[in-house]
Amino acid sequence: MLIAGMIDVILPLSRLDWAIAGTSSSSVVPSGETPPGEGTKHSQWAHWIDSRTADADGLVDEGDMFDDPSDASLTLEKGRMLNPATGVETDYEEVWRSEPIEMVPVLGGGDGMVSCLALRMEAAGAGEGPARGVRRGLVVRLGQYCQAFARDGDSITLERLKWDGEQQTWTRQFRIGNEELPTEIATHLAHETRIDDEVKASVPGGTTNGFSKGDCSAIAMLTPGYANLWQHFYPVGNTPAVCLTQGLPPEKRADILLLGCGDVRNIMFTLHCEGPRQIDITCCDSESTVIARNIILMTLILDDPDGQRNNDHWDIYYHVFLNRACHDLLLERIKKVHALAGSLETWRESEYGKLIRFCDKGTLTRVAEVWAFHISAATEKQSWMKKTFKAAIDSRKRMVGDTSCVMTGQRSATPTGILAAKDINDLYRHFWRHGSLHLDQAARSQATFANPMFVSPDTQLEDVVATARTEFSTWSGTFRERAQENVILRFFIGDVFPFCHTLQHRHVTGSSRAAGWYRGRHNTMDPLVLIEDDYGTDGTAPVSFNVIDTSNLLDHLGGLNLLGAVSPLLDDDASSSLFTETLLVGDHLPTISLLLGLFPVEYWTNTSPSSIGDEEIEERTQHFSRVTWKRPPSSSGQRMDLLHINESAFASLLYQIHLDMFPGEHPASIAMAALNRQSLRRLSLPTNTRASFAALLSMDALLSRIESSSALVMGRNGIQELYLYMHLLGVHSVDTLEDFPGHRVRMGMEPTRGPGLPGWQDMPSSLCLTLKVPRPALREMTDLDPKLVGTVPIQAVVQSSSGDLSSWQNMFSAVQLGFGKLSTGGSRFSNSFELNVKEDAQVPSWVLLLEPRTAITTLGDTDHVYISKDLPNQTGTIVVPSFAKDAFTPNDPTDVDVKTTITANIEPPARKIVSLTARLDLLSDALRSVLRGGKPVHINPVSPCTVTLTIDKTALDITFPLPVLANTLKTRIARASSYIELTATILPNPATHPSATFTCPVLFPPSSSTTTTTTPICWTTPRIHFPSLPTISLSNRTASNLQSFLPTHTGQMFTTREARIRTNPLNTSTQRPKERTRIAMKETLHHLFLQFPGFAGGNNNNNSTERKNATIFALHNTSSPATAAAAGINILIFVSSLRLDLARRTVVLDYGGDQGGRGRTAVVEGGVACVGGAVRVVGAPVSVEMGEEVVCGCGKGVFPAGWAVDNMPPPMWEVVKGACVRAAISPLFASALVESVVPDFGCQVGSGLGEGGDSGLISGCRNCGKQESKEGGGLKACAKCVTVKYCGRACQRADWKRHKKECIAKE
């Protein structure tokens, strides 16, 4: 689309079978002679170059040629030749096809047309290898083909080019080898004298125009451009609805940013789960039809105060075919909102303007365009829509079949997903067969109207559909009520990155000036300008958020790109959360997340409120995993601490990140991907460009490693893009960009007085290159089969016109694509020249000056190539702001006694952060005096991230931004200089180093100026809204269904490793105390959930006369004497019901807890069954001291009417409830980011060994968890059992007391 030129497809020599070059001669075989055949020819081929032998002189092949009577273009050759495999002369046959010859014009000079041209090359020289002395080459141009074969010693180079008549250029079809070939001479010239001149000029040894590190180019986006041949439209999402505010305290205002918002499910479900808080939701989606659909549904709900037409709203939103009533309702609604969308003012003054707002004028314009199209489609294009829908149904049937299983719907049915599998698949097939979920034939027969909202430009099943409709009606009712209160919905149509960077620009600068972005990467040149009234200096629209949800964009845009753009928009508050969803199984990013100012909660705590065990059981290739990202813990409790890193080590880390961002350029990855179609497709769709990398940088020491690296195939071709964006984003400027006027003089490119590019006065350091492509030329891509080629990446290439050793080429991947008409203003080749609307790419000025008319062979084409100072429709360059200055703790704090500095340590050869150092500079005279006086310093790790340092009687808290190993803490005390340093190793594996205080970390944010009380914030236990949780019936009719999924679901709390520990007595006796505590806690929870409905403790019969549910449980201290167990009771638990937690796709116990004021570590008793094991009470630990309350008492005695406990007389409950607090107990699942969560159904007692004989307990050193020895090499195994490994003798000795109980000699 951008460049019609050479395609560098270089094949390995192993792909070559045989190549020869030389001369041929033929003679007609007289009639009557052998072999018979009229017109038979005898041909000879004299070899001059041969790929199989260095000595080709004298080699001649002979054969007889027979015309095929059925096809004049085919000729059969028969003959004898030396078989290279056997060394024996053997008969052979082969068929040749004749190609018609086309006359091709001369591009580089000469007159007329050329049909045949041969160029023979030979030179003396030693060469290399056994074939040294052979230096020959032959180029033959015949009509539209040009082939070349050269041999220099053992080095073989081959190439074939073909003339492209439509593009009027030569394209390379294949190439083997890396030597220079003069094919360009043969394709461009026709006169022998000029050929001689060119050959002499291209002899190696002449000067070349080398690259300096100032060569660069630019574009308008940070991510690759694509030619979208296959348009995906997602009117309905394929992931479960989530409650977006589950981590916010109930009294806190919610400012929510939805990126890739999709349909309305998350908005409506969040409002359904919420109390009366103030909510402002900003929705961003690149698909205008999605936003238009959502607004239609919302206005329909708002105008139906009694909910009488909820079922019609369901049909309109979800069904492809509608009945007359729904069709008329929809058409009336679209016409109404379309009339209101004439201007922003008209919309704001409408009845919907207070609730539904638009972030910019372009969004309203695009929504109005969609509605206009829907009106036309509904009234004039019914037959076209029906044909389109039928084609889609047929296409889906061809792709997945009519009996295939599509399991994505099961996610919404978890924890009963496995039970729902059959119904979901039956309904899925029914929908794609009929276009609706009407199971009644009579209802389906009335649905004869195609639904324009879906075009962009058995009894059991009936119960399922009825349940879904009821849920939709309930959500609609909640939405209708809340919409009249304190809810605002804002909409933006466009791409994530422009929107995020524009919001951050407003947040950092306070300026409403445009940030130089277009609203999208593809098909638009519309500048993004936010509405002044909402986003100006006096605007009230949020530009930072305490909830950001990115849907599954992480899989499509890349983690570095997405998190780098979104992280600065997250509020610096302990309750603020950024959510990502991934459907792909991938590696975590603990180091990268720290550099981006984020903390992946599920990873570091190895705790998740939801299970993906069902997906693991079914062995799905994609896992739906939702990750919560917070701000890292900091010393201030609010702002982030600045991170200090050694510059050289940081450069090594960034270099590795640079390599990892371009997997499609690694030779090994390319070779492996060729064996797997999915891998090849993934590598062919890069998510990063050099501009993406530049947007992440914050230092200028890195370039030398990238410049000298050959690890990436296209590394040198793309480095200019990196230079430019580092310059544009203010990261680093190479010499040619920092002083472009001086560089222009040094290169001999001073401005001339003549016309054209050389005459440009005051030329800026970068220029915008816009290429106008006629629509017929797009057939190069649009004629391709999208099902075969998928999405085609687009790159801009600026290269020299010559193909010799002096040639140069720069590639730029972050292109902006758009459609429309281009108009200009001002004088060409001057700073006043402006472009309006079109596609663009930016290039460095001096690169164009190398060949001001012939670079890319089209710079002189003023009809299609435009060079300007700024991008079309823009003034200035793009802005990628980083964090606001007030996001960090001040580097020079005032009015404090201690200054804390955190340093991240990157130790070679590890290319990741391996340890952290906290330095405390004592600023107060009192502390300095105490330290210099020799007072002892005590270190007390209170959590994985917090260490209390006590000097004499003064306690100081040190907060690390990542969890560290307490047993690796090293202290350095500089008494004379008044500072203390603490260094600790970062937690290597959260699975094998669990923490009792970090399974459910609870934070108490510092009080603000407006309040002296704070609400505890638990990072891994989301808040719930009891009225939105359905109660699960325990009647005998439903008990069998409950028992069929509940034990499996709660059993998914145990990871594969933990399940093996549970079933192996040896492992159970030797596990670490913290491991034992975590497993025992899960064991306790598991039994609580099974005992309440009567499925455990021997009461697992569903018969009503035998099944007995336990409702009263007690936690007591295991240290209490057995004879005085009652005295050790700490908490009484009175369970009322089992509820379905839809937001987290699990179950919870609704209970009232009487704390008893005794502590938090206890044993659970329930009914007649006793469950052993230590457990940490679920809830916010206000205090962990004996005699103090564990759970906050603000809700003590507050229970809704009718709340009761089975097996407990109501009068007794009335006495007890005054000391109880209502709360919920939920399962505690592990994170799939850390370890396998698939249940190990096959593990038996004694089978606790993992793969390769390892114990399944620890992947690193058995004692400290390190992944390598202290000398930097591999770990050493125990010589006796060979099942555990250590980093050194010290760790082996430290662990021996435990290991000797399990150490058995390996037979």
From TrEMBL:
<dbReference type="InterPro" id="IPR043047">
    <property type="entry name" value="Hri1_N_sf"/>
</dbReference>
<dbReference type="InterPro" id="IPR024119">
    <property type="entry name" value="TF_DEAF-1"/>
</dbReference>
<dbReference type="GO" id="GO:0008270">
    <property type="term" value="F:zinc ion binding"/>
</dbReference>
<dbReference type="Pfam" id="PF14737">
    <property type="entry name" value="DUF4470"/>
</dbReference>
<keyword id="KW-0479">Metal-binding</keyword>
<dbReference type="GO" id="GO:0000981">
    <property type="term" value="F:DNA-binding transcription factor activity, RNA polymerase II-specific"/>
</dbReference>
<dbReference type="InterPro" id="IPR002893">
    <property type="entry name" value="Znf_MYND"/>
</dbReference>
<feature type="domain" description="MYND-type">
    <location>
        <begin position="1261"/>
        <end position="1303"/>
    </location>
</feature>
<dbReference type="Pfam" id="PF01753">
    <property type="entry name" value="zf-MYND"/>
</dbReference>
<dbReference type="InterPro" id="IPR027974">
    <property type="entry name" value="DUF4470"/>
</dbReference>
<keyword id="KW-0863">Zinc-finger</keyword>
<protein>
    <recommendedName>
        <fullName>MYND-type domain-containing protein</fullName>
    </recommendedName>
</protein>
<dbReference type="GO" id="GO:0005634">
    <property type="term" value="C:nucleus"/>
</dbReference>
<keyword id="KW-0862">Zinc</keyword>
<dbReference type="InterPro" id="IPR031818">
    <property type="entry name" value="Hri1"/>
</dbReference>
<dbReference type="Pfam" id="PF16815">
    <property type="entry name" value="HRI1"/>
</dbReference>
